[in-house]
Amino acid sequence: MKISTHVSSRLRSGIAAVALGLLLGPVLAAYSVHADDLDVPIHEYGGDDLPTCATSVVSGLKAGGDGFLAVRSGPGSQYREIGRLKNGDKVFTFDKSGKWFGVVFGGSEPGCTSPVKKRLLPYRGRKGWVHGNWLADLAG
């Protein structure tokens, strides 16, 4: 009797765990999509066989200054700092708002040839907004 009670209890626990996973799975998946923690989302634009992003490098930061380029959660200095870049760091620019660029950085190289017209940036990796004064185009 004791073994069947133990098995029955474990079975109920297993069923409860599966049910919880089925209920929370979509919630957790949605959270991971929005886990970039951006206040202003970055979009990818494309079409007509043009690349959807450009490769840039951080440059021009003065050694006597802060020594870093703040990555922000939106296109402006009023947004939260969510990362830092330094001279020589490579970024992929996708979106633009005024003098601010939506970038992906610090990970594998995203494909920049998607035939989309406009969509939320789907790439995994670190994302954010940086001021264009410290970005230089990188050939290739």
Question: What's the quick description here?
Answer:
The chain is α+β, with helices and mostly antiparallel strands.
Walk me through what this model shows.
- There is one protein chain.
- The protein contains one helix and nine strands, in the order αβββββββββ.
- The chain is α+β, with helices and mostly antiparallel strands and 140 residues long.
- The chain has two domains: 1-35; 43-137, SH3 Domains (SH3 type barrels).
- It has a five-stranded antiparallel β-sheet with strand order 8-6-5-2-9, with no helix packed on it.
Can you write the helix and strand succession as a string?
Answer: HEEEEEEEEE
CATH fold descriptor of the largest domain = SH3 type barrels
For the terminal residues, how far apart are their CA atoms? 71 Å
* Outline type: globular
- Main β-sheet description: 5 strands, antiparallel
Number of strands: 9
Rg calculated over all Cα atoms? 22 Å
Number of helices: 1
Which CATH-level-2 architecture of the largest domain? Roll
Strand content: 25-35%
Strand order of the largest sheet: 8-6-5-2-9
Supply the helix-strand structural class.
Answer: alpha+beta
